[in-house]
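User:
Hi there, any thoughts?
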Amino acid sequence: MGPLALTATAVALAWAPCASATDFKFVPNVSVSEAYTDNVGLNSRGNERSDFVTTVAPGFSVTRDSARLQLRGSYNLQALFYANHTSGTSLSNFLDTSAHGTLIQDLLLFDARAAITQQNTSAFGPQAASNVNVTDNRVETRSYSISPYLEQRFSNVATGQLRYAHEAISSGDVHGNSSINGLGNRNTGLGNSNTDRLIATLTSGPAFRTFNWGALASTQNTRYPASDAVSQSKLSGNVGYLIGPNLRATAAGGYEKDTYVTLGDKPQGAFYNAGFVWTPSSRTNVTATVGHRFFGQTYELAINHRARLAVFNLSYNEDITSSQAQALLPQTSNTSASLNQALLASVPDPINRQRLVDNLIQSQHLPAEIATVSNALTNRYFLQKNLQASLAATGLRNTVIGSLFLTRREPQSVSATPVIIIGGSSSSLDDNSRSVGASGVWSYKLSPRTLTNANLSYTRTHSLTTDVTTNYKTARLGVTSTFQPKLDGTLELRRTLQNADLIGGDIRENAITASVRMQF
């Protein structure tokens, strides 16, 4: 974990004024599980090897909701012990923490985030459902960001903000097991970067109700360990005009310049767009724009509709991005964010609503995220076109979350690293690809102490460079029972099917897991 992120969080906790016991909550926990899988290494048909895997994961969660600091974090140290493949025994870290604080009221604030997670590196390698599977397509990714900013309101005329951000991401060793697949652990070197960003914005205030305006200037520098740094800068302005009670016309324009190396035209030039914002009711919002950037015509769409206990989102966007930038952004299909919107009408207070969402996710064992495109590790910049729809609904007994996505990635920069073979596939397969996927989670409360979870997901990814296609399907069915207020147990069945146009790409796994989790 980056020392800067840890230091910033510690300073924030120490500096913040004393709060009541209800503002701060620290909860230690431990979970123990035993899993049986008939294909621990996710090997191809005929090469499967079964194993019993014991997992012990101590950790804690921490929350603080005070006037000056909102903090949410969780950490677990996961130890895995393999009955038949002792060289696969490993330790892994899981961290997810974010903070928003006020250092000087109405002037100096900050945002911070730190995360450690395990992820599949390529959509074309074996797709591990968890760390129980030992493959050469899974790495530990560490990231952090810290962003102090000045914010000033100029009466009701305008609001100005000057923000600095430092972000870092690194990928560790591949979790391969030499006794299972013969490749062993090694460092990919993909995806590592450090970024410094400066953004200045000025937006109109309530005095400009009919005609609104804004301006932005930004510059950033991203450094890589094995290639030249990349600079990106933008200068833009935007205007809006209220042409009806619920309809506003919008327009924007400016100039952008990137310095990543391409074989085509330089990634710079003027850009512009025009569109509208339509709000037929307080629960429905539609935003649409069409425009032009240096890579061609652009489109953007966002539709948000909220019912009493449900929310629906549909979005389409196009942007130049990187795997590092994607890793540092919150996922649009994040379970917490979806449930937060679904409960907006019934629980108006944001602090109480977030507490309720946290309890729902924990008590109903909901996944942190629903299906999104795999964020393959690469040092290339690419044009990403993403269409996504999501639905979240919750009631007395049922919670349903679903997601659909269609993503197209087109490489824009020259590859900064040599091709690496990961999990039997080339890391370059993900650079020019099209993915489609769907996922659904249904949680049903059988009784006050027992609930069931059903989770289905499907992803199809096609490499347009090599014409290789991989299909991934998984089904989970689980039952969770609360034995005591701070003790619960889960029994889960999982079946995974994967096929790809690669040697060894036909994979099947069946697994059963029994786990117990206790809070203190």
About this structure: The domain at 3-519 is CATH 2.40.170 (Maltoporin; Chain A). The first strand starts at residue 24 and ends at 37. The chain has five helices and 24 strands.
